[in-house]
Amino acid sequence: MHPVLVELGGVSVRSHEFFVGLGVALAALVVWLEARRRQLMSDGLLVAVAGGLIGGALGMRASGLVRSLDPAHNPSLATAWQDGAKSVLGGLTGAYVGVLVGKRLTGYRVRTGDVFAPAVALGMAVGRIGCLLTEPPGRPTSLPWGVRLSAEQIAAVQGCVGCRPGVPLHPSFAYEIAFHLVALAVLLALRSRIGVPGGLLTLYLAGYATFRFLVEFTRANETVALGLTRGQWFLLVVAPLIAGKVVRLVSVSRSTQALPPATAEYSPG
Predict the structure, then answer these.
(1) How many Cβ atoms are within 10 Å of 15's Cβ, its own excluded?
(2) CA distance 38 to 43
(3) Which of 123, 130, 212 is nearest to 175 (CA)?
(4) 219 and 236 in contact (C-beta within 8 Å)?
(5) What is the pLDDT of residues 149-178, one digit of tens each?
(6) What phi and psi values does residue 47 have, to the nearest 5 degrees?
(7) Residues facing 136 on adjacent strands
(8) What are the DSSP calls for the chain, one per residue?
(9) Number of Cβ within a 10 Å radius of residue 132
(10) Which of 39, 79, 41, 37 minimizes the C-alpha distance to 61?
(11) pLDDT tens across 172-215, in order?
């Protein structure tokens, strides 16, 4: 575990904050490149990006408000604001809402999901490097690639309650990094083949939701009910919304393919 990436002139550059910041910067660059490629650069898009950044930051913090099914056990607003900065699911939800709010405020009606999807995948892959270096790896495993921590490394990781020296653990964040890199490659390969606006983002969200639910079984997160973590319960709640978007994507895609060639050419999708 490496909570401090480097020391510069007596100033500690923390690994988690560095890679999260780098991920955000690279995601912003990809949004700019994709917007230029699709000829969508405008003031409305810039406001949407700003809304996504603000919403993502607020979502990560706000996620700390709900840690228990019993409201009496949940932290105060001040405590949640200080400690709730590492929830990726909260950040993604906040960013999604932030983009919608930004577009609504400016009246910007262009679908932007396809611009954001590759950017989010890359940003997540890079940001998760910080988690890999600073957070508890995962649950014990007998797989040959399990991560073994020393007593000193365990002491340097917050929340590594179940960690034991020499016991192999799932490198759960490495699994996430691999998923997002594969997702990025798939999204780039499909971006010229999916003609339904927002289709790339729908596929990415559906894929990540499914993967995240499964990978939670390898994470060291606390289970709250029926052997499931808070993240898994959140995914179960939003699953109908994501499934509805996938069904709509498939329906619209089939309708577009069924159109005569001349009609399909001028379809707004």
Answers:
(1) 20
(2) 15
(3) 212
(4) no
(5) 888 878 777 777 668 888 899 999 999 999
(6) -65, -40
(7) none
(8) --SEEEEETTEEEEHHHHHHHHHHHHHHHHHHHHHHHTT--SHHHHHHHHHHHHHHHHHHHHGGG---SSGGGSPPHHHHHHH----HHHHHHHHHHHHHHHHHHHT--S--HHHHHHHHHHHHHHHHHHHHHHS---SB--STT-B---HHHHHTSTT-TT--TT--B--HHHHHHHHHHHHHHHHHHHTTT--STTHHHHHHHHHHHHHHHHHGGGS-PPEEETTEEHHHHHHHHHHHHHHHHHHHHHHHHHHHHHS-HHHHHT---
(9) 22
(10) 79
(11) 999 999 999 999 999 999 988 887 888 899 999 999 999 999 99
pTM of the model: 0.84
Give 14's strand partners: 4
Q: Which two tokens stand for residue 91?
A: 């950040």
Q: What is the CA radius of gyration of the chain?
A: 20
The pair of three-digit structure tokens given for residue 80, joined into one six-digit string: 């949640």
Tokens linked to 202: 């729908």
Which residue type sits at 178? A
Burial of residue 46, with CB atoms counted within 10 A of its CB: 0-12 exposed, 13-18 middle, 19 or more buried: middle
Distance CA 210, CA 265 (A): 34
Joined together, the tokens standing for residue 127 give 């940001």
CA 208/CA 210 separation, integer angstroms = 5
Report the alpha-carbon distance of residue 149 to residue 134 in Å, rounded.
Answer: 12
- Identify any residues that bridge with 147 across adjacent strands, giving them in sequence order: 169
Quote the distance between the C-alpha of residue 88 and its chain's center.
5
